[in-house]
Amino acid sequence: MSVKAGWGVGKVADRCGVKISTLHFYEEKGLISSWRNQGNQRRYQKDVLRRVSVIKAAQKVGISLEDIKTALSALPENRTPDTQDWEVLARHWRKSLDIKIAYLEKLRDSLTGCIGCGCLSMKKCPIYNADDKLAKEGPGPVLLEPMGSE
Amino acid sequence: MSVKAGWGVGKVADRCGVKISTLHFYEEKGLISSWRNQGNQRRYQKDVLRRVSVIKAAQKVGISLEDIKTALSALPENRTPDTQDWEVLARHWRKSLDIKIAYLEKLRDSLTGCIGCGCLSMKKCPIYNADDKLAKEGPGPVLLEPMGSE
DNA sequence: CCTTGACCTCAACTTAACCTGAGGTTTTAT
DNA sequence: ATAAAACCTCAGGTTAAGTTGAGGTCAAGG
Prior knowledge:
2 copies of one chain form a homodimer.
Chain A: H1 9-16, H2 20-28, E1 35-36, E2 42-43, H3 48-60, H4 65-72, H5 83-116, H6 132-135
Antiparallel strand pairs in A: 1-2
The structure holds a DNA duplex.
């Protein structure tokens, strides 16, 4: 009965299909955690795999690491998260996915008419001004703030 | 009948709701163009407004400037693009929007089950491996290439 | 004429999400 | 026992899409 050995960073990286540097990075950002062995090497609990999977899944949905971190922080600290814990996250993100899909559908439906239309000023262009609130959770680094939201 | 005066960069920026630096940037990237007046100041044709609108609309859909540039290069050089020219673009992007929406719907439909599921290895996770081809046009800077697409 | 305001260029900074490499230690396999 | 593989830290690089600022020129109004 050895004291729990945990996995090394290389193995985890391999199983997750990410680079070691990514795991270092996530740890630095507080998205995953590890303990160290005698020789200062990282050891991981096996649930890190699910964490990384979830991080990657959420990223695909366009959620930033920042927001993912926030969501993950809702998981219990003291015990290994169970299925129910994870499903809370899933439901949460499902919602924002629904919103995003609705947003894109709206965009799609106005795209053709809009690009062809006569609105030479973006001030009145319906596509340009399509509810920016929704776009905030949108396609990553969109830093523009067209209509003076303040 | 003065020789066509065109618009100054400040006016265009104002009408488009973007910063002057953005127009400089777009020009540098070859997305828009201008000529210079006597004093080396930029002058724009009025169709630059539509160009910028289209650039911004496309960005909202998650298309990169790189791809937008490619699409814009299909516009006629010699004459001012007409409605039909623009509609070709719109149709093109509508298609990729359809694809993206379908992708997100697929993600959404597997999200809950997937996060809660027992796949501890991302190698077999359906959400992680949901057709990466579609994700390529996806949420901006997603640089990961999980399943060795080459 | 002279002062603003608009414009010019060019270099450097910004954010997100990592990656790369150098230089050094630890673990593992032979 | 020793070489190779795996790991460590830390600094600096990368891409996208701009933004900011310095230092200088141009144009318009009084």
